[in-house]
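To assess whether the prediction recovers the assembly geometry, we first specified each molecular entity separately, as shown.
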Amino acid sequence: MEQLLQHLVNGLVLGGTYALLGIGLTLIFGLMNVVNFAHGEFYTLGAYAAFAALGLAGLDFTLALLGAIAAGALGGALCEVSLLRPLRHESIDTTMLVMIGLWIAMQNGELLVWGGVAKSIPHPFPTAPLVLGPVSLAPLRLFVLVVAAALIAASYLLIQRTKLGRAMRATFQDAETSALMGVPIERIHTATFAFGSALAAAAGALLGPIFLAYPSMGDLASLKAFSVVILGGLGNVPGATLGGLLLGVAEELGAGYVSSGYRDAVGFLIIIVVLVLRPAGIFARAERIG
Amino acid sequence: MPNRWTVLVVLVVAALMAATVFVEAQAPIKLGVIQPLSGPVAASGNYVRMGAEIARDWLNAKGGINGRKVELVIEDNKSDPKEAASAAEKLIVRDKVPAIMGAWGSSMTLAAMPKLEEYGVPMVVETSSAATITKRGNPWIFRISPPSEMEALGLEPYVDKLGVKRVDFLAVNTDWGRGAIGAFGDMLKKRGVAVGAAEFMEQSATDMNAQLTKIKATGGDTLFLTTAVEQITLIMKQAQEQRLARRIVTTGGSSSPTQLIKQAGTAAEGTYHIVFFMPWFPEAMPDGKLAKAFVDEWAKRGHPFEGLTEGFRGHDGIATLAEAVKLAGQDDPKAVRDALWRVNLMGVNGPIRFEKDGPSGKESGQSRPSIFVVQIRDGKVTLPDFLAKK
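The predicted structure of the complete assembly is given in tokenized form:
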């Protein structure tokens, strides 16, 4: 029982980070229909931005996080304007290939700039865990969970409650009608991609200090993000959040009670089951039109 | 009828060929190196490369091998077995190296091995610990690192002094990790130690909380860790977060205690590490003078101190290859392979001499490296009490 509680806490903390990765991608993949293989690289970008700010420049944690988010948004906007805008009317395969190219280019760029040796990102939190009965949790992890929850809530509100969010949803449902209604659709494309990338960078900056920063860290992140998006349904922010938590808990329990060697397999097993039974995602209410 | 132009062209071609032959005699001896220079275990691979470069520069400063300079052709296996195989093929086919050093991880080495046999080029294995490497009957393999069995035997005399009664294992899910759990498990069972959980993690995994929670429930007193320093760092931090009060022993010699002190901080306090080089007290190594010189050269180049426990492997590997080329008197792969059996060399780790291992008729070479145990205490690397009072 004690073990189960600890496993659940571990799973939720891990799942929170998966959710953060997933919501950024669900916007880009789900709304924009871009199979963004470079999503993990924006995660890496965020981690290295945090390393530069905390480890090299000695800034404080909040500034570093904001810096990483800005770097992610800027990088995302740049990529959208230069790579995706000219290909707006091309097929999904074309943009997918371009994103694979960007993924490889960014990863090798990181390798060139930072070298292959993993970087440890300093953080101001105490290392002694918070203890609550049988469960212990590092203060940094709790902080990450809280910030991730805040970012997820903010994203949800932005998409559902603001004018910008409405413009985003309208643009990706029907671009021509939206344009006729006065929505600046080019700018909305850029803003959406920048927003999704900024969320990935935020995840990198938050998780970097818990783990380590290295050039190939984005590969695993991309994989998890795609899993979460598929679990939650394309473009579905609450779905991605729940999908992330579900994946985190499932992996944790799989590793804890089945076999740790098959930890990732448990996650993918769930995805296969979901794809077979509910191809639109477990949390899809009804088929959306558009 | 040949005209003047034809004669001229023939003369020029002849002159060029003569020049080529002349250059050939002076051409450097190329030695191949395959290491993980990027990916999850990149830190270790880069340190091995730095050590290899020191060996190369030392050799060249002494006039090279038989009057020819030594050149390293370094390939990145990206911590990936598939890449290790293609790196070996590239070195052999395109660069035509007579011998290779590599490929750090056991899975990477095992993936490169069929290429060695296919083309007939020897490889000195500098790091890999999986027993199968020298047991498979690949006569082109010469290992200077200890297999896990040898390491386990090296630790055996200290099991009682460490006070190990109930042990759990956490290892990377590769040939190395699985092999280490087998070897250390057998040795510990023989000593009457109870073996609890044996948990695995992917090489790229960063969150090991599930495994640690499971291990915490077994009530053991000691945890054996087998993986590279990056994951050891993460595990120690996460074990501290989970209040896992265990004696931790790392195997495989890739724990870099100095890096752990830096990156894991108090989480590394009290842990034991099996190492094959003790740069903290080089005078205690079999050849104190060589070890000291290596540590000094490393510092002079501005390499990080924590890399020394990996870096020496690169030095010893290249020194071994160079000695074999020297003994062979030529840089033909087969001649170098035959000469490797005659190598008798003092490396930074200690004496290097190959004994036959594996199925008869197709034996691989295995040397008997020196094995040491150190402990992190008060943020410093020290000899454990049971070793210090000698």
